[in-house]
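Input record (one chain):
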Amino acid sequence: MRLVPALQTRFPGSSQVALLGLQQARDAQICEYAADQDFVIGSKDDDIRRLVAARGYRPRLIHLALGDVGNSAVLAAPLAAADRLHLAFDDPTTGVVVIESPKPIPAPSTPTCLDPRTALQTQDLTPGPLADAYDPVATVHAHNA
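The corresponding structure, as predicted from the sequence alone:
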């Protein structure tokens, strides 16, 4: 499945590391390129998230914390959250947006309908004095409408 053409419907100008000739580049080189070109990186890789945080959230990042899923789920997540992603990144203080699979909720004693849709979190771009001591957890949660 080709991700870039499908992503371009909601994220014009999207590209891929291989299409940019960076398939052999190290993560730091990819981050540098993305920052210089004003790209937002989309990745499932925790190493990229740590690197972006260490660089002061330049470039900005969509962290796909989806677990072991296929390309169709990787594609569906940002497309489903596209409006919220654009809104989050319109705020210049947003450095990382985390799209994660919903966490399992314990079964209630009475039947209920659960919202299985993807949750979205945003993280403040401004590193504080404790930024090196711990990874500040996202500050905003939203759900698909």
